[in-house]
Amino acid sequence: MTPPKDFTAAVGSDMRVAPRRVLFVTRRTSPQVKLHDEERVQTFPEVLVRALLAVECLAIALVLMSLFFNAPLEGIANPTNTPNPAKAPWYFLGLQELLHYFPPIVAGVLIPGVLITALLVIPYFDINIEAEGFFLRNRQRRLLVSMGLSAAFAVFLLFFDVYVALPAVAVMAGLMLLAAASSPQSPNRFRRYLALRPVSWWIMTWFLFEMVVLTAVGTFFRGPGWSWVWPWRS
Amino acid sequence: MPSPIATALDRLERTRVWRSIFRSGKGRSTLHNALVIQQSVFLHLFSVKVRKRMLSLGATWYLGTLTLATFLLLVVTGVLLMLYYHPSVPQAYTDVKDLQFVVSSGLFLRNLHRWSAHAMVFLAFAHMFRVFYRGAYRPPREFNWVVGVVLLLITLLLSYTGYLLPWDQLAYWAITVGTNISSAVPLVGDKIRFLLLGGHFVNANALLRFYVLHCVILPLSAVLFLAVHFWRIRKDGGLYVRESEPGAAEAAQTSTTEEREKP
Amino acid sequence: MQTNKTGFLSSIRAFVRDPFRMFGMVSVILLLLLTIAPAKDYFSQWRGYQRQYLRFIGSRGDAVTLRRHFTGGIQQIWIPKLDVVDRCQSCHVGLAEASLADVKEQPFRAHPPIPHKLTEFGCTMCHRGQGAATTVEEAHHSEMAGEEPILPARYIESSCGQCHHEPLEGAPKLNRGRVALARYGCVHCHTIALPEGSTMQATDNPPPLSHIADKTTREWIYAWLKDPASYSATATMPNFQLSDADAGDISAFLIANSTPQPGDTIAPPAASGDAASGSDAGASLYGESFCASCHATQNEAGNLVGGDLGPELTNVGGKVKPGWLMAWMRDPQKYDPQTPMPQYRWTDPQLKLIVSYVEGKTDPDFLANVHLQPATKAQIAHGKKLVIEYGCASCHVIAGVPKPDNFAPELSRIGSKPVVQLVFLPGMKHTLPAYLEQKIRQPRSFGPSLHMPRYNFNAGQIEDLTTALLSLTDRSFSLPASLQVPAVRETSYQPAGQAGQLMASLNCQSCHRINGHGGTMAPDLSWEGSSVQRAWLDNFLKNPNTLRPTLIRRMPRFNLTDAERTTLTDYILTVYQTPAFDRDAMPLAGYPPQLIEQGRQLFYSKYDCQSCHMVNPNVDKGYIGPMLTHVGARLNAAWIFHYLKDPQALRPGTIEPNQHMSDDDARALTAFLMAQKSGAGQGANQ
Question: Is residue B192 assigned to a domain?
């Protein structure tokens, strides 16, 4: 029999046998539980009207866009005539940009596979669930590790000529240094914010930053033969 | 003195037909408002009540709602476009040309479909990052996050399969580039590509396959996962609120409970 | 005031904060937007043009008719078989209105008359562009991913060439361009496959170079390689823009590679003192032999006089060695079996005369500055390398250097080359025709390492060539075979036997076409045996004259012996007969006078033959067709009869109109024409 104190998110009719998790107690806060929830409003009409409002604003934007900008349509598909460059849709251009540096097995299979897996398992990682600032504890060691990782990553990128991804590494390393040097009580709002960022935030932001940079490069800065072009000089 | 419109509405709501459709009945009471949600097959996936803090724009940016809205817009415009479109080579291309140049408002429809598709991909990504940064993926919402990731993949696949349908150069080569990547998968890469394209090259078979995926299989899967996604929002405790946010402290009364055991 | 304003602002703020009011307002905006969405359709360009057209015709005299012809909405020509969906007439509304021919401005001009109906092939088959599009930009100028923009009107004849591979009346540019492609040897290096399965053949005759040292000197080769045009303005040899060293090396290799050929040289005539009188006699022999029918020379005024079948001879004395020229004049085919030059049967004194006359045509300046050091082994080896590199053997036979296959890019579909696949020079127009023109004008401007030589074409020739190249499209290969009009197929017909050898040595087929093989300068001889009478033919070969008043005589006299002439006449009369009729079915003379008189009436009144032909030179003014003053002594009666019935059946392509004569009329006219034997205009002078 499972002891009643063991919190598992199982579902059963007998609450004594399989208690449902109804609250989550974090380490930092005192073991408190709300007796009464905060103020609530009714979904109809308060939420629905606002949601519809947002939807309508989006619809207006899209309709206006459709009125003034035409969707692209090129010549009929011709297998014998390869456009240069042949580009994938914009949301895959980050990957296509990676394909330029790494063999297809890495850029086309390994990296997307790892990304999807990582996204799927994020909530099942229990590390630092309280989301405390990464550099608030073990500052020296964590700083050393993060700087070491940044440097290793930069060397790795250099090795594969991925120069476009380097500025993002530099910016992130700089932000980490700043975060490590800031305290949650800092008078500067931005530094306070950085100091409180947990490790997951750093990883995700780094990833997001790199992906945005790569996608932007693939979309705007790549011309014939995937060579570098300046979009304003064409 | 009530306005004539209000009177007419009032009269309409009293009719037997109206009451047979909308069970919530007349009135603006809490009960009635709750019944509106509860009695509707579409709305009952949502909670009857929502924390007041979630109404503010900054809480969610309505990104999830907007993603759903683009999906619905895509379904509507997509179904209309299907009326003119044959998934065959080279008729597909000429059909799209006809949509652009001859069909009344065909160009508008296609534009709306195209831009909504891009918007949906963008909004889905934005929604995901918003959820992540707010920490809304944490237990007990972990499974809903997984469903969300699946929905993101479905969105990408929807957009990608739709990309081929105009059968123009842009479409053809984007799909060629994309499917070539799949052949890099060790051992089964070429098989996967063959399965995707229904052949070794992007040709009429691939077009038909992508059409079926785009118009039937993927939208149905999306609807399925969307239902789970919404249902789980409600079952996982409604929209996520962060404890540290303003408003939480006043709203919550506290009482002690036993300490959590450390694993 | 202040409070008022604040009150207004705060009421706005209150309004914005109230989601229900906002919802109402935004809903109204969205609904409004959705209602005006169809306006995108309403304000489409083609509707605008149709409205403009209605206003435009309203002010014209023929408004009622035009308005009756007008139908609103998208107009399209749809030909599934040809993959044509052309909506051009949605904007070009008056295209089919003959009464709008006076309109000068697009888009409402009437289409100029063409041999095809507008609905037969649609618009884009000829004009290119996007037929399905209904906006000006998309229809005319789209180049996205291989779409073809509209073809500039000056190249429009190229579109005829997609189906018509034969010489086409009404498309002179295309014809000239095609002739130039063959004549300037473009197709030696660039393969041009035709949809009917054959490839375009070159018509130039690049001389073989295996025995070149017999013919000319290294210095001349050097100067010629450096700039062929400075030797002869009409040279078909292009300028390879060689450096001095490279030209020296190539000339060294060609001379070193040359082997003497027995019979290529004969001891030249000794330079005699009476050069002046000799040259006079030589000049008259040159004239009598009608050398100028094929060879041009520059006269004092600097104009070229003469034909272009053979090379220009203005400065030939500086080029060829006298000993070689002697041998060449005696038997040209010995040196070059492919030459079109006939073998004149000159006597030795005549040979000496003509050789010394031709050798006298020199330009001392041409070789004045050429001083070459003796060639070294390394130079010769480098010369060979260059000969291979520049593909000289694509055109010339050179011993030891095989003809390269597909030396240059194939041009069979060059007219459909997508603009995106082309590399343009800065400042160039980004169109295919502009690219082709520049490529022909200055091939090396696209890169100094390219091998294509520069030709001396003028702007007109470049336009002709571009037109011909633009006709080589993908579409011309995908069109249904039923639409293809094949090029005139060249057969390999050669006459046989003793007469055949004779005709080969005379190179009759350099000028005359026989059974689908031969030149086009002179009449087709395939059915000459059915056509002419023996006495006339024998006499003509003895002393040729022209049949048409407006043409200068070009047939040379070949100094044939009586026996040779008889062989030739017998052969022509026996072999070159049409299977359509028996040439002796009608008598040559003895027609009743009333029939002749009836024929005369028909000649002068019913059929107006005198507008093109002359029976009595004193009265008639027809300068277009052949003289008929002696026709009764020249042609067979049966030939005349059948020719009158259906001229094109016997002479395809002749401009003689088919009058669909009755047998009686044709018989009467034949009788009248057969009476014209002595040039007196029998029965014609009344």
Answer: yes
User: Would you call C40 and B168 a contact, using CB atoms and an 8 Å cutoff?
Assistant: no
Each residue of A120-159: b (16+ CB within 10 Å) or e?
eebbeeeeeeebbbbbbeeeeebbeebeeebeebbeebee
CB-based contact, C23 to chain A, within 8 Å = yes
Residue reference for tokens 């989550």: A24
Report the C-alpha gap between B64 and B69 in whole angstroms.
9
Does residue B261 sit within a domain? no
The H or E element spanning position A16 is none
pTM for the model stands at: 0.74
3-state SS class at A42: strand
Q: Are residues B20 and B66 in the same domain?
A: no
- Interface list for B 66-125 with C (CB within 8 A): 94, 97-98, 100-102, 104-105, 107-108
CATH code, domain carrying B202: 1.20.810.10
Q: Cα dihedral sign for B72, B74, B76, B79? A: negative
Token pair recorded at residue C527:
């059915």
Of A40, A88, A107, the CB nearest to B50: A40
SS (H, E, C) C311-362: CCCCCHHHCCCHHHHHHHHHCHHHHCCCCCCCCCCCCHHHHHHHHHHHHCCC
pLDDT digits (tens, 9 = 90+) for C203-234: 888 889 989 998 999 999 999 999 998 888 88
Statement to judge: residues B157 and B74 lie in one domain: yes
Number of domains observed in the structure of chain A: 1
Residue C537 in tokens: 């033919």
> What domain range is A185 assigned to?
87-226
A204 in any annotated domain:
yes
Chain B residue with Cα closest to A73: B168
Residues B4 and B79 in one domain: no
Distance CA B23, CA C26 (A): 28
Residue-number span of the structural domain to which B134 is assigned: 59-237
* The pair of three-digit structure tokens given for residue C104, joined into one six-digit string: 């000068």
Of residues C85, C89, C97, C56, the one with CA closest to residue C72: C89
So what's the ipTM on this one?
A: 0.85
Give pLDDT tens digits along chain B (263 positions): 568 888 898 888 888 888 888 877 777 788 888 888 888 888 888 888 888 888 877 778 899 999 999 999 999 999 999 999 999 988 999 899 899 888 888 999 999 999 999 999 999 999 999 999 888 888 788 899 999 999 999 999 999 999 999 998 889 988 888 888 888 888 888 888 898 898 888 889 999 999 999 999 999 999 999 999 998 988 887 787 766 544 444 444 333 333 333 33
Pair (B63, B32) in one structural domain: no
The three-state (H, E, C) secondary structure of C116-135, written as one string: CCHHHHCCHHHHECCCCCCC
